[in-house]
Amino acid sequence: MAAKVPSVTFNNGLTCPILGLGTWQSNPGEVTRAVGEAIDIGYRHIDCAHLYFNEKEVGEAIKEKIKQGIVKREDLFITSKIWNTYHRPDLVEKAVKISLSDLGLDYLDLYLIHWPMAYKEGSDPFPSDANGKVIYSDVDYVDTWKAMENLVEKGLVKSIGVSNFNSVQLTRILNAATIKPVTNQVECHPYLNQTKLFDFCEARGVTLTAYSPLGSPQRPWAKPDEPSLLEDPKVLSIAKRLNKTPAQILIRYQVDRGIIVIPKSTSKSRIAENFNIWDFSLSEEDINAINSLDCNGRLIPQAEGREHKDHPFANPDITF
Ligand SMILES: NC(=O)C1=CN([C@@H]2O[C@H](COP(=O)(O)OP(=O)(O)OC[C@H]3O[C@@H](n4cnc5c(N)ncnc54)[C@H](OP(=O)(O)O)[C@@H]3O)[C@@H](O)[C@H]2O)C=CC1
Ligand SMILES: O=C1CO[C@H](CO)[C@@H](O)[C@@H]1O
């Protein structure tokens, strides 16, 4: 029988499996198989987004596994994210309904604002001008948040949260919220361990979700000569001593910190490997050694929105 994944409890009393499967760049031709295999292995949490252009194929796997009686809808925890071109309050319900229809679901467990920046509304996810520069919209993400709250009231989503929000942006949401965000999903791994943002969120009852926990080696702008987390000597030496793989160490690092973690894979063996982390934990000494790798090593800078007033990482005065 598959191991049961421990859960994190949100500020609204609902729970979320601490380990989930990422789906960015999971090829539509492979993702149905991969999500199906993940559910067979024991994953119950799947991280999706409208921007990943594969929600229909993820939905096919969910439908099939429910049909086979492997899981019931309520056993699963499905996240999606509203893309930057749908921030205008009157578009928010339309956006969630597109993801629900693509996934074949009648509710989401979690819906996130993918980024704080609003882009020009329309069908192009990266609307750009003649010089290739993204065209922005001036919608305030606080107004988007108020429309997200309506989705909870309407039963379309169980919980709402944010992604890629810095501490100042999160504070603005918390000050305006009737329904508090349950999580902030951000890039988090040993080269950018987010200790300050994690402490800040924890003190306010907001969980952290770690994306790109393995260092996102598949990201399109990766350079061949860059240091690789999966080959980092410190990570390798801990993995060797504990008889685990580097990926298992990187995933367990987040679990042991109480951070939700969503590694992506479409390989059956790596999906299984990434799930097989329940028979060990890291000592304080190992966690401290991994923490010492922190070097502000951001891998997902969202460079194309950098001049946007709401870009979360562009203001040097806001350090986390
Ligand atoms: N909110 C946001 O803005 C963002 C959210 N995300 C979410 O987080 C998820 C994870 O982040 P992502 O950037 O995809 O990167 P990850 O850090 O999860 O790395 C995924 C890559 O690592 C490879 N891999 C997976 N398991 C192993 C293993 N055991 N050993 C060696 N290599 C492995 C995968 O290849 P293979 O598939 O071949 O196994 C893939 O190339 C995304 O898929 C997405 O759901 C990501 C970025 C931004
Ligand atoms: O989830 C994500 C994956 O990649 C996208 C393209 O850069 C990002 O915008 C986003 O954060």
From TrEMBL:
Organism of provenance: Spodoptera frugiperda
PANTHER family xref list: ALDO/KETO REDUCTASE
Keyword flag Cell membrane: no
Record-linked InterPro entries: AKR, Aldo/ket_reductase_CS, NAD(P)_OxRdtase_dom_sf, NADP_OxRdtase_dom
Gene3D superfamilies: NADP-dependent oxidoreductase domain
Active site: Y52
Record carries keyword Oxidoreductase: yes
Family to which this protein belongs: Belongs to the aldo/keto reductase family.
Name the UniProt record assigns to this protein: Aldo-keto reductase family 1 member B1
